[in-house]
């Protein structure tokens, strides 16, 4: 009886440990994905700033030309 209960508890603990390991690996994957997304956001933000500068230059040129 006690042996059966201990075996059951051991099996439950092993199951919990497997789930914990799986979740920890999933967290690492999510952190890596988040880092990649943040890097992409930074890149796109910089690209947008450059594009806005180009637009301002072009708008300045079109306003400075005589009609």
Give keywords.
single chain; 67 residues; 1 helix; rod-shaped; mainly alpha
The parts where pLDDT drops under 50 for at least 5 residues are: none
Q: Count the helices. How many?
A: 1
Oligomer: single chain
**Can you summarize the main beta sheet?**
none
Instruction: Report the order of strands and helices.
Output: H
In helices, the fraction of residues equals over 70%
Q: Report the sheet-strand fraction.
A: under 5%
Distance between the termini: 99 Å
Task: State the secondary-structure class.
Answer: mainly alpha
Over the alpha carbons, how many angstroms does the gyration radius reach? 29 Å
Averaging pLDDT over every residue, what do you get? 93
Strand segment count: 0
Shape: rod-shaped
Short description:
This protein is mostly helical. It is built from one helix and no strands. It starts with a helix and ends with a helix.
Kindly describe this structure.
With 67 residues, the protein is mostly helical. It has one helix at residues 2-64. The longest helix has 63 residues, at 2-64. It starts with a helix and ends with a helix. The mean pLDDT is 93.
What does the secondary structure layout of this molecule look like, with pairings?
Layout: H1 2-64
């Amino acid at each position: 009886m006690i042996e059966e209960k201990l075996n059951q508890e051991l099996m439950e603990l092993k199951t919990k440990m497997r789930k914990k390991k799986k979740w920890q690996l999933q967290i690492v994957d999510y952190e890596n994905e988040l880092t990649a997304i943040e890097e992409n956001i930074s890149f796109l933000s910089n690209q947008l700033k450059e594009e806005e500068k180009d637009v301002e230059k072009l708008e300045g040129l079109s306003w400075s030309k005589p009609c």
